[in-house]
Amino acid sequence: MLRGFYTAASGMITQQRKTDLLTNNMANANTPGFKSDQSMIRAFPEMLLQRLDSKSLPVNNSLSLSKFQPIGGLNTGVYMQETIPKFLQGDLKETELKTDLALIDLNGNTSSSFFKVQDASGQVKYTRNGNFTIDSDGFLTTASGLYVLNDQNRPIQLPDDQFTVSNSGVITSNGNQVGRLGIAYTNNPDALMKEGDGLYRTENEEQLPNAVDNQFRIQQGYIERSNVDVSQTMTEMLSAYRSFEANQKVLQAYDRSMEKTVNEIGRVNG
């Protein structure tokens, strides 16, 4: 019976973690470039129960052999193995702001191209959030103040806010080419590690190669919406809540059975 407590509790913990994940998705439904997380839930290894017995042989030395009688399988609960971002292209929203840039992948509906930015420690990170701005020194930055990098991994400094960005990422201001956006490309975006503030990194901090022209397209004056499906996320949240509640009722039933066992079984009536 005690094993039943652990099985029900593991189900409650898993559904609680799934609810936290879905809640975070809902909270970022309006965050530009956000990629929703999906959970991978697996069962713990199933155990095969056998009854151990012995059988005596009719010999002078009283020889006995071990005997195993199968009882059946026993599942020991579930756990959330990992969370994986869903790298699907989000819808585009027009903002008419020159500093807003949307990244469109040309090789299918998977988000394989990323803007390159520089974090506070000087490391190169990757993002799909093209909601950029220009700081007081004229550098193109993210909303949180990280430098947007060019194809040489250097911060992009603009003479003014009257600039244009071509489909291939070439930045032009007053008829002069200022630089080119640093766009990274990966064949396996699922291998990227997700960080806060919409940033991604490679597992070993290795830099991704620059994308080529036929892999992406830049749309100035637009941002990429979050790819969170609000209706589906709400449905999954309700399902996770019901699963949590069902495991809770099982746990309460085990608790009542244990209470009955302790208080009533073995009672001596005087």
TrEMBL record:
Positions of the Flagellar basal-body/hook protein C-terminal domain: 219-263
Cellular component, GO, one term: bacterial-type flagellum basal body
Residue span(s) of domain Flagellar basal body rod protein N-terminal: 5-35
Single biological process term from Gene Ontology: bacterial-type flagellum-dependent swarming motility
Sequence intervals crossing the membrane: none
Flagellar hook protein FlgE/F/G-like D1 domain location: 113-172
Domain of life: Bacteria
InterPro entries: Flag_bb_rod_N (IPR001444), Flagellar_basal_body_rod_CS (IPR019776), Flagellar_FlgE/F/G (IPR020013), Flg_bb/hook_C_dom (IPR010930), FlgE/F/G-like (IPR037925), LlgE_F_G-like_D1 (IPR053967)
Signal peptide (from-to): none
The entry's keywords: Bacterial flagellum, Cell projection, Cilium, Flagellum
Localization in the cell: Bacterial flagellum basal body
Family matches, as PANTHER family: FLAGELLAR BASAL-BODY ROD PROTEIN FLGG (PTHR30435:SF19), FLAGELLAR PROTEIN (PTHR30435)
UniProt record similarity statement: Belongs to the flagella basal body rod proteins family.
Name under which the protein is recorded: Flagellar biosynthesis protein FlgC
Taxonomic classification: Bacteria, Bacillati, Bacillota, Bacilli, Bacillales
